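[Structure tokenization] protein backbone as discrete codes
[Encoding] learned vocabulary of local backbone shapes
[Protein] chain in single-letter code, fold in tokens
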Amino acid sequence: MGKFLEENLIDSMDEKSKGTILRAMAVFVAIEVCGSFLTGKTGRSTTRDNFITFCKSKYIPKKYHKISELLYEIFRNGVAHSYVPKGGAHLTSDPRARKHHICFEQDGLFIHVLTLAGDVTNAIKNFVKDLKKNKLLQKNYYTVLQQLDEYGKEKYRNFIRQNKIKTTQIPVRGDIYEN
């Protein structure tokens, strides 16, 4: 159950990952997907609520609670939709800037992405511990994964049908879901 979270979400945020923006994208997506496992909901109209729910949860350090909506608006939305944060946002992975993490500068919020990634990684690890014990969280987890699976399969089948594509069978599965 926790394999998806730990091996895929956490590994993408690791310090060895390349690029501040790519790492930030992974962090913001991880926050959002973990929020979906808390709420049991997924889809277009749920992204903001899922992101903020996890940001304000017991798993994320309190310093993020009051800025969760700002993180969503200028960081998550900017990075997810435009590959760069919106104005009023500064991201860095420069080790010298670690002490300035969550600093309100005159022209924007400063985020040290490695510190954010570390905080979210710890949050996910603690969330996985609860997920293994909590039946409601397990239900939400499987509900969200099932909804995503069904949605994707429906879109894929429609594409195949509409384009009259002949499919083939490959003996290997993707690697983000447990067998």
